[in-house]
Design a protein that fits this description.
Radius of gyration: 23 Å
Number of domains: 3
Number of strands: 19
Helix content: 25-40%
Length: about 425
Amino acid sequence: MQTAELYAIYKQYPSVQTDTRKLKPGDLFFALKGTNFNGNAFARQALDAGAAYAVIDEKEAEIPGRTILVEDVLEALQNLARYHREQFTNLPGGRQVPFIAITGSNGKTTTKELIHAVLSTSYKTYTTEGNLNNHIGIPLTLLKIREDAEMAVIEMGANHQQEIAGYCTYAQPTHGLITNAGKAHLEGFGSLEGVRKGKGELYDYLREHNGTAFVMWDYDYLQEMSKGISGIIKYGTTGEAHVIGKVLKSDPLLEVEIVQGLDDKTIATRLVGEYNLPNVLAAVTVGQFFEVPDAKIRAAIEQYTPSNSRSQLLQRGSNQVILDAYNANPGSMKVAIENFARLQGDNKILVLGAMAELGQESIAEHQSIIDLIGRYTWKQVLLVGGDFLQVAHPYLQFENALQAKAWLQQQSLENAHLLIKGSRSMQMEKVLES
């Protein structure tokens, strides 16, 4: 079946699902394959649950009149998403919907959420839900965008080169933002230079398609990477940027002063950590660019509350907890520890899970974190799992988060401050489970 024909069916049934457990009556079910599953085997189950059609790529799964046979289900999903995306260009009056792509090693989800909050005050804005930011999640995000869209904000995650380039072929961003490019996913990218090359594929697309980039001008490497892009909007802490801001305080919630670019100068966020300054500045910059009123920009950022274990400030009895356990890499771990060390309070406990996907650099990077920990005074340090188990250190050591939780429960902590952070695979949020 051709993409245009499939799109006609999608227009009748504009809700796409790839998981039978989440399927609702009237959905289009795409029978994706993975290493350990084959969605074709669930086509009949999806139809019995009320799916309008099941899109399959194995003839054995065919049910006349109920299934749509394609060569490759994933490719069909991505092509359908591209076709849908193209409907938002060349609209009546020459209008097109801006599609803003966001990638980076750290902070991309928080930046995406802040930008979405700001733009939503003035435009009908669609965005990536959660972290559906891969080769399946991005097409699903695109296919949730409705005809009333005035803005779209698309998050792009990647762990190897050519991934972002592939996403751009169907997301077709008109605007883009790279939060930063640090030591994340080194196993796939190979090196820091490989990370920058991979993330820079977004800039490559914008350069080739006369797009606009929002660039954190403090980072020399982003200045270099963005050269040749026709539209560059700068933000940062220096006088060369269009939007300039600085940290007023962060103990523990971040308060920012917008020195240039916003009439409402002070923004009191609900985010923990000075490292969120670039994320706030990015949201201000995008809001300014799209002429969102200053008061709405400020209010949207101040009202945004982080969730899903990202820079969350939690109170557990008399204890204050910074839960930043959605993910971790050497860059984000370093700034989180340094920020925590600067906060007021003597009764500080570090609970850190290992960092994943660092390849040959993993032992050295974990040793570097241990060296950093040793520069400060802590009440206690708990290191959990992974390559923290392979490096000599004087701190408490646990194989998993549940063991660390058991130790903490035995301590009857009072008036303590805890930082909980680690890679997603470590599931460090379990430390707080009842």
